[in-house]
Design brief:
There is one protein chain. The protein is mostly helical. The protein contains 10 helices and no strands. It has a single domain, classed as Tetratricopeptide repeat domain (Serine Threonine Protein Phosphatase 5, Tetratricopeptide repeat, Alpha Horseshoe). The longest helix is centred in the middle third of the chain and has 22 residues. The chain starts with a helix and ends with a helix.
Length: 205
């Protein structure tokens, strides 16, 4: 998860150019996160979301910080609280969900699974795969959905057994899509390439 956070943050840096209040606040939130001030970052994103009511991105990052933090928590009770708080930010109405939200929900469920894999894998694993499938139904070429699904499937096969050739093909496609990815929307999610590339390299070893 530390690698994921670095991937998320390296695309942004403070700029001397004039910024709108929204851009300034988002940049400050991301800077706080990069500095390890997760609670401060989430509070910033929450304030931005309260102003930018029709903009899903601030709330997305508020949830993202909470979910990535949860992977590093060792107290299961606190971990579950963090996951539940993040999941509460994800829209419940499917009409409001886009591919990025589905990927984020898959990550939240994955973190939840790590609390007690033996007890929850049979229930949560299909739910996680369903979230990635829904993301890909909306955006077949979303690299985060492709790489996330491949990553989860590969990790599962470490315990269950099975060939990972198909997952490696997915990762190869995802890395290629990351290279081509462009979005004019400020702060649109673009994380995941380094993790996908590392997993792809493991396919070749």
């Amino acid at each position: 998860m530390k690698t994921l956070m670095i991937c998320l943050l390296t695309i942004w840096s403070l700029s001397g150019l004039a910024q709108t209040p929204y851009e300034k606040a988002m940049t400050e939130g991301l800077a706080s996160w990069k500095a390890g001030k997760s609670q401060e970052a989430m509070a910033t994103f929450e304030r931005v979301a309260q102003v930018e009511k029709d903009n899903w991105i601030p709330k997305y990052y508020q949830a993202m910080v909470g979910i990535t933090n949860s992977f590093m928590m060792t107290n299961n009770e606190e971990k579950l609280k963090a996951i539940d708080a993040a999941k509460a930010l994800i829209p419940k109405d499917e009409k409001s969900l886009n591919a990025e939200w589905y990927v984020l929900n898959a990550l939240a469920l994955t973190s939840e699974l790590t609390i007690d894999p033996m007890a929850t894998a049979m229930t949560l694993s299909p739910q996680i795969m369903e979230q990635y499938q829904k993301a890909l139904a909306l955006e077949p070429n979303n690299p985060r959905a492709l790489s996330g699904m491949a990553d989860f499937s590969m990790q599962s096969k470490k315990y269950m057994g099975g060939d990972t050739k198909e997952e490696c093909k997915q990762l190869e496609k995802a890395v290629s899509l990351f290279d081509k990815e462009k979005n004019a929307t400020k702060f649109y999610p673009s994380w995941g390439k380094e993790r996908a590339a590392a997993l792809l390299a493991s396919c070749k070893n």
